[in-house]
Design a protein that fits this description.
Structural class: alpha+beta
Radius of gyration: 28 Å
Strand content: 25-35%
Number of strands: 41
Number of helices: 17
Helix content: 25-40%
Largest sheet: 8 strands, antiparallel, barrel
Strand order of the largest sheet: 26-27-28-29-30-31-32-33
């Protein structure tokens, strides 16, 4: 076993690797960029070395510098985590030449499986079923369109060197092929430095099912069950679960054996994932399956496999890389229960899942102690989510004795997550857990799109309980503000509540919900503890422990969290039943006016770079026509015409950097 390793990564996966190393007595060396100087992974390791600028190309992609630092600081091996250098065959080869162990597969295996087209050719030779498509080297646009026409639409364009949903486009019609190909190639070049794409038939109801494989240097190979990763948005995974539901034992066994054969075909070593796509019937049951790709690294979703197998896959990686045999044979690996992983992202589901950047003013994930709940995070309160890296905040993983129990536990865990400072998908994940098709395991990659009316609908329903929780927080806040030095304890004369001598009093509180012009007024009777809202009147009592409030309305008890945002006076965040609502407590002495947004001024949705402009000054376009494309976090976001009109101004050129809110184009109606 190694004495010291360098972790060539950042965030939650670097923290995850460091945790296992600490348990095994292995020292760790972290590397960090300018943006990550105070990050959790820096604190999690025994030593931490500054490696470069914030952009990945200036830090986490500097393979030569990683090797140099590993040798200087006495590391025997380098663990690449996932992303960045993890599937870089040249880096793996360079480690070996430098006398360092690359904790991953051999360079040749990465090369053979790292290219989707080469991998499919290899699998075709091994008689693994493939989705109909073109995986060759010819990349002429008109040739590729001819191949797509031959395959039949819809087709899927995929970056050959891709992963993580980047460089993928669904094309519904031949006339849309060339534009989609151009966009796919730009994103592939930006993300992977390789424009090569492949074309495949797009299945109407695809299930994304993957097999975790592990191989050692002695030629042994096993699979640790299966995972379902079908719940996706924009071709990126949102939820993962193990084992995959609604897949027959026969199909699971066939997939597992095919995955092991695929690994053996390239003399694989270490952890890998073989991904399959299967056509689902109307009930979500998986049928015929096809090889999709192999990820030659540890997957983001590896915790669900750990939860159902009871194994530490990072420890397996370390042992295999150091020359040990696999800890278990195939017949010794036991399946226990069901696990689900939810990826908590800084993004806005109600705005096409655009990433959100900013500071985590509050990140409360101190869930109740339960061995069946696990959090893998690389950030904490006070940290910033920057535009340089993936916007994942944390992974929330739960285990239950069966799928129903795991879903129930995930609902409860998500309800206890409180994050303030930027947009997140926590409430969206909670709605997913309550979505009938998901609960019934009627899964495929189109689940979110088909149910977006309910999943992407921001809950703005106001109940008397909501206002009662806000009221309780304000009353507690008044009491705290009354506790100044020198105050006579229990003196009603120095209290800010509604106490009156020989009289009852009523206080009125007015609240406004973010995004609504309507205000909500609730009256509180101090002496008789009664609140009234609209035509409802109820007895009211509460107690508060930190941000958690326990409420009783006419004897019916419930609980929620209300957190006051110290950065915005009067702003209250209500976390209740999986919802997150942002409220304002209105001061009656102040008058506020909402700013009017000028019609036709199209702004940047987030910081990024203009990569394409489809129009010129004076062009007349129809509603929905593409105007320009902004790239942010290696994803492309298309700005379309909001109505029929004319391009009046273009404020930026291709290649220009833009900030969130910058006016990109001024657009006017043709009728003006």
């Amino acid at each position: 076993m190694f004495n010291k390793i360098l972790i060539a990564n950042r965030g939650e996966i670097a923290c995850r690797i460091a945790k296992t190393c600490r348990r095994l007595g292995i020292q760790t060396v972290a590397v960090y960029s300018d943006a990550d100087a105070r990050s959790l992974h820096v604190q999690a390791c025994d030593e931490a070395i500054h490696i470069g600028g914030s952009a990945p190309k200036d830090s986490y992609l500097l393979g030569d510098k990683m090797i140099e630092l590993a040798k200087v600081y006495g590391a025997q091996a380098i663990h690449p985590g996932y992303g960045f250098l993890s599937e870089n065959a040249d880096f793996a080869e360079a480690c070996e030449k430098a006398g360092l162990v690359f904790i991953g597969p051999p360079a040749q295996a990465i090369r053979e499986m790292g290219s989707k087209s080469a991998a499919k050719s290899l699998m075709e030779g091994a008689q693994v079923p493939l989705v109909p498509g073109y995986h060759g080297d010819e990349q002429d646009p008109h040739f590729l369109r001819a191949q797509a026409d031959k395959i039949g639409y819809p087709v899927l364009l995929k970056a050959s060197a891709g992963g993580g949903g980047k460089g993928m486009r669904i094309v519904e019609d031949s006339t849309l092929f060339i534009d989609a190909l151009d966009s796919c190639k730009r994103e592939a070049q930006s993300s992977f430095g390789d424009q090569k794409v492949l074309v495949e038939k797009y299945l109407s109801r695809p299930r994304h099912i993957e097999i975790q494989v592990f191989a050692d240097k002695q030629g042994n190979c096993v699979y640790l069950f299966d995972r379902d990763c079908s719940v996706q948005r924009r071709h990126q995974k949102v939820l993962e679960e193990a084992p995959a539901p609604r897949v027959s034992t026969e199909i699971k066994r066939a997939m597992g054996e095919a995955a092991v054969n695929a690994a053996k075909a390239v003399a694989y070593e270490g952890a890998g994932t073989v991904e399959f796509i299967a056509e689902a019937d109307e009930g979500g049951n998986a049928g015929q399956f096809f090889f999709m790709e192999m990820n030659t690294r540890l997957q983001v979703e590896h915790p669900v496999t750990e939860m159902i197998s009871g194994q530490d896959l990072v420890e397996w990686q370390l042992r295999v890389a150091s020359g040990d045999r696999l800890p278990l044979l195939q017949e010794q690996i036991e399946l226990n229960g069901h696990a689900i992983e939810a990826r908590i992202y800084a993004e806005n589901p109600e705005n096409q899942f655009l990433p959100s950047t900013g500071k985590l003013l509050v990140m409360n994930m101190s869930l109740e102690q339960d061995p069946g709940v696990r959090i893998d995070a690389g950030v904490c309160t006070g940290d910033a989510i920057s535009p340089f890296y993936d916007p994942m905040i944390a992974k929330l993983i739960v285990w239950g004795k069966d799928r129903k129990t795991a879903i129930s536990k995930m609902k409860s865990a998500l309800d206890q997550v409180n994050i303030i400072g930027l947009s997140t998908n926590v409430a969206f994940l909670g709605r997913l857990m309550r979505c009938e098709p998901f609960c019934n395991a009627n899964l495929d990659t189109g689940l979110i799109a088909r149910n977006e009316q309910t999943l992407l609908h921001k809950d703005t329903v106001v109940e008397i309980q909501d206002l009662a929780f806000l009221l309780a927080e304000r009353l507690t806040n008044d009491a705290i503000n009354s506790e100044y030095p020198g105050r006579e304890l229990n003196s009603p004369w120095q209290s800010q509540d509604a106490w009156r001598l020989n009289s009852s009093s009523t206080r009125t509180f007015t609240f406004a919900l973010e995004g609504q012009s309507q205000t909500y007024t609730i009256n509180y009777g101090y002496r008789d503890q009664i609140i009234s809202y609209a035509d409802q009147m109820t007895h009211f009592s509460y107690d508060q422990d930190g941000s958690k409030i326990r409420l009783a309305l006419d004897g019916v008890k419930s609980s929620a969290c209300v957190i006051s945002n110290q950065s915005h006076l009067g702003q209250l965040h209500l976390f209740r039943n999986g919802r997150h609502q942002v409220w304002s407590c209105l001061n009656p002495l102040e008058t506020t006016h909402a700013e009017e947004v000028a019609s036709g001024k199209l702004t940047a949705p987030m910081p990024g770079r203009v990569v394409a402009i489809h129009v010129k000054l004076g062009d007349k376009v129809k509603v929905g026509d593409f105007l320009l494309v902004v790239e942010a976090m290696k994803m492309e976001h298309t700005i379309a015409a909001p109505f029929d009109g004319e391009v009046a101004e273009i404020n930026y050129a291709q290649g220009d950097q833009v900030n969130e809110g910058d006016q990109l184009i001024i657009f006017k109606s043709i009728d003006v």
